[in-house]
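ingest -> validate -> predict -> emit
validate: passed (alphabet ok, no gaps, 855 aa)
predict: started
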Amino acid sequence: TDSTQPCKDSVFFRDGVRRIDFVLSYVDDKDGERKQERRKVYEANLEKVGLELETEDKSESEDGKTYFVKVHAPWEVLATYADVLKIKVPFKVNDIPDNSEMPMNWLSTPFRLPEHIMHPEPDFFTAPFNKSKSDFFLIDDKDTFFPPSTRNRIVYYILSRCSYFRDECADKDKKGIKRLLNNGTYTAAFPLHDSRYWTRSRDDKCESERYNLYKHWARFLCFFKEQPLNLVRKYYGEKIGIYFAWLGFYTEMLLFAAVVGTICFIYGFLTYDDNQWSKEICSEKIGGNIVMCPLCDKKCSYWKLNTTCNSSWQSHLFDNVGTVFFAIFMGIWVTLFLEFWKRRQARLEYEWDLVDFEEEQQQLQLRPEYETKCTNRKMNRITQEMEPYLPITSKCARTCLSGATVLLWISLIIACIIGVIAYRLAVYAAFASIMKDSPTTHLEVVGPYITPQLATSVTASCINFVIIMILNLMYERVAIWITDMEIPKTHLEYENKLTVKMFLFQFVNYYSSCFYVAFFKGKFVGYPGKYAYMFGWSTLRNEECDPGGCLIELTTQLVIVMTGKQVWGNIQEALVPWLMNWWGSRKARNHPESLYSRWEQDHDLQGFGQLGLFYEYLEMVIQFGFITLFVASFPLAPLLALINNIIEVRVDAWKLTTQFRRPVAAKAHSIGAWEEILNGMAVLSVVTNAFIVAFTSDMIPRLVYMYAYQPEMNMKGYINNSLSVFNISDFLTDSRPDDDENPAWYRDYRYPPGHEKQYSHTMQFWHILAAKLAFIIIMEHVVFVVKFLVAWLIPDVPSDVRARVKRERYLVQEYLHNYEVEKLKIQLSQNSNECNCTPMIYPSLSKHEVLSECL
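emit:
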């Protein structure tokens, strides 16, 4: 490009030499004298620090009103702050043999990416940069020694601490780009993408890594390819890199759970014809002759057992022996996932130079909001400087108000769940009233596959999902508001507080309906003549489970909520930023590409906020809860999660590469607080799945019947055995149906009328209860023992990584020592020549002693 007419789609200043490391934008409005003064002082202070600025006038911008200030960090500034931030840089090519190649590596060839994409730079030994020893490091070209991600991280560090007040001693709080963005002095601050995502940069000096990421990572057609994590880390920084590493590893591990879950589902399908209890239910001689008690008072009619034939067969697909095996398998799988992730994380820490990384600096950096709102000051014991602080009384009051707000919203969720339960009871009664005149042998509404129970369950689940999404949208704002009200000291503390609030709320919001169906529905029904009612209201009799069990309803609830959340989440993630960018850049589409500058293109994109990854983690952790807490009810849940995550990886990559400004590179050596949340859910999942198999599934009653009450060890007669008889003359007047059938049956283990203990529980009931409790204890202990054994056997850090870390530390010390010795030799030689003293004059003295004599 001609030097007088530089290409505007460039990441360099007008001279084509100095790289743009950051861009600030602002609009010069009419009432902006104070803002103009702040900008003037702030930019002058940036130049005092050593940064170089270049301003694009508003007449050059496509909207005619936005100014762009381009920021460049010269070598002296980069070297100084790399020393301050202890940024690790290469000093020698890594010569430790890499023996990590797997056998039969050729099998993975179709899934691999080109080597220059997977490993965009050689592996080096690294050490914290020291400006005084710059010749120790491998500096071939000072302009390219620090990669763009490191450069924008250093510049952002300066921008965050530079004052915009003339007399810095007068008010130390008036500093930082965050506050200038909050008060509208600047409209945006961002580092530049290095090129358009769909084509390489026309500048040969530009890396075009964004284009490579889009081509090899963000396109959906690459879904079966490995992720170029090293390139992601190089371009976006370690914090984003570690998220995609975790998401990719989680997706890989889901493949094993999905395969086993699918096999368990296929087992249920293949044993379809061996389902003896369903045959008895569907039989005209058995199920057709059993008249069941009404499922609601007055309006409901008697019904025959064989009307639930279809739901019984459907329930068998998920409620079989494979369910128990899969519940145990998932308890072990979640442990393997977490332990292998620790190993993967340790390997990434070594490969990405994060072994000695600590977040102390982040913890010491105060949030601008904290500095603004806290007027009191005290001495910081670490920095030995006066800093703002929040009095303990104010802190306690704010914490109590925050906790009360969280409890209020959780109570609101529970109230909504109770409302949905009341809806289920009322709708079922309405269905029964409509079909009251139908024959008792045919209770279906639309066809042979839709019963009142199924219709009620599906509509209630859909309504519950809509309520969940509305409450979730409202609570996001409330959680941010109450977290802001608490005035956390650092960004790390802010994110942890928000994480706890959001996860606690979403845990209750998404899982409460599943917990109700799994552990409460059908457990507190009572029996004919003495039914239990919600809040004592005679119109709302507690729900009973389907004769096939409540497991099929839990499956329906889980599928609707989990699938609905995933589909809606992916649509929202992809569509919303695309529409906003389309609307924001609609004017620019009328200009030639050569006039649409790189900084304007990125300015029109969406900003990737500091909480961008927070919402990504939250979405995946909620999904993790669905596939672990309730997986015993739906073995295909890991398969649905796997399909979603394959899409999720590419959607996240696509929107980050094409729809968002380039985030400021940040370091992180782990997934943070989310790891503890995952560990907690892993432990809870063992308990919930044990209870689902014991109390929601019919597995234990069947096994007790087969081994304790059936001499032939088969399931013949199970249906008659699992039902009890009731004399309709014992119905209360308010609950007695209009038509009479005598006798009627109900699902329970109670003595028949006329027995001395009529309607009290039989001994078989207590045997089954004991078997359920024994199963829970045995399953939990077996799984926990295996979990702890697996955790103990699998070290968190692979032995080869531990050895390589020790080896690298040793070599770093050795090379530094040799460097110091060589430097001292040169110094000694120069000093010896200057004072005409040589070791030959003092043959008995060492070089150090010779130098002393000369001095």
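Residues 22-214 form one domain.
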